[in-house]
Amino acid sequence: MEAERNLTLLLQDPGLPTDLKHIAEKVLHGERITFDEGVLLFEKGELGYLGVLANYIREKRHGDKTYFNRNFHIEPTNLCVYDCKFCSYSRLIKERSEGWEYTMEEMLDIVKKYDDEPVTEVHIVGGVLPQYDVAFYSELFTKIKQHRPELHVKALTPVEYHYIFKKAKIDYATGMRMMMDAGLESIPGGGAEIFHPEVRDLISKDKCTGDQWLAIHEEWHKIGGRSNATMLYGHIEKFWHRIDHMDRLRTLQDKTGGFQTFIPLKFRNKDNQMSDVPESTVVEDLRNYAIARIYLDNFDHIKAYWAMISRTTAQLSLNFGVDDIDGTLDDTTKIYSMAGSEEQHPGMSTKQLVELIKNVGRHPIERDTLYNVVTDFNDYQFPEEVKPSFYKLPVIN
Question: Is the C-alpha dihedral spanning 206, 207, 209, 210 positive or negative?
Fold first, then answer.
């Protein structure tokens, strides 16, 4: 394949530094790189070099396939007991006039709005408030499954679970089993930020620690659940903090195998307490995707949110290790726009998303939450007379 040929040519470059050549050889032979080599990639790896390595891994795993899904999201509230410095979305309880708090019936009405749409997943995540407790979410998940049994419920981050389990005085294992029994089928990757306390204590001190985040995912994996993982990058962290974060994920994945997808999340500085911190460049975004693909050798998928980074950057990312760009959406997802995403009122139909993927020579596959193929759009012909529907993009997962 061309990706392998490009890697072979790279290894023949007499100007390639010995340490980078050694890493490239490891990638060619499917060998794991070390922590120090991961840091070295951030310090010395140029974009072209990283792209060759990451694309080789991506195509070896997935060929030209690029995944997306059709789902909708529910954001129960943007009010929160926590005060994360990077967050543009949440409001403290004393700022109640700037927020919303959905009742259970209002959330179920959102579910019912999509009864006639071919969505496969509902994604639920939001702020943390006392009234949204174990009993509330158990009943919500159960009612959603009763209403639409085939709809996959992906919900709540470890930040939310840690809070509601602590409030209920139950341990993580008991809590996750209760959630699964109520209808929960997978959990998103949000709330990870940066695990290392040196950074975490500065940007999100009050909420669950990195170890607690990992422990909740581990308990979920133990009972057969699947989940995703994220990393908030491009703010005050150093390169080694990023590798430390990915290394902890890689270690847990070795143990449980329960993670599906890793999603690097670009820090956006609009209207938050870190607005003085400059955002990363597109080159750094692409380097970060590539290094994630190289380092996380036991993760099947690397995802980029096109609405957060722009359609063009999302297309570019497909040559830097990314094989999933999430889904179609309308303009109701506030987590993106409030954070200063590239698309302030994003909307892309299934047809437009398929064309975006095809225009860079990739093979579009609609998937469900667990990456089962729903529709292979490679040779699909859209009826001219049918206007494609718009769907909501999930929040950070």
Answer: negative
Confidence (pLDDT) at 72: 87
Is the CB of residue 65 less than 8 Å from the CB of residue 120?
Answer: no
- Number of other CB atoms surrounding residue 302 within 10 Å: 25
pLDDT-flagged residues of the chain (< 70): 88-98, 328-347, 384-397
Are 363 and 58 a contacting pair, CB within 8 Å? no
Residues 6+ apart with CB under 8 A from 74: 102, 107, 110, 111, 122, 123, 124, 126
CATH of 65-376, one of 3.40.50.1000, 3.20.20.70, 2.40.50.140, 3.40.630.10: 3.20.20.70
Euclidean distance between CA atoms 77 and 137, whole angstroms: 13
Angstrom distance (rounded) from CA 42 to CA 51: 13
Task: Summarize pLDDT for 161-170 with one digit per residue, the tens.
Answer: 999 999 999 9
Distance from C-alpha of 10 to C-alpha of 335, rounded to nearest angstrom = 40
Pick from 9, 397, 376: which is nearest to 185 by CA?
Answer: 397
Q: In what order do the strands lie in the sheet with 226-233?
A: 71-74, 121-124, 152-155, 186-187, 226-233, 259-266, 301-302
d(C-alpha 57, C-alpha 8), whole Å: 13
Asked if 148 contacts 180 with a C-beta cutoff of 8 angstroms, the reply is no
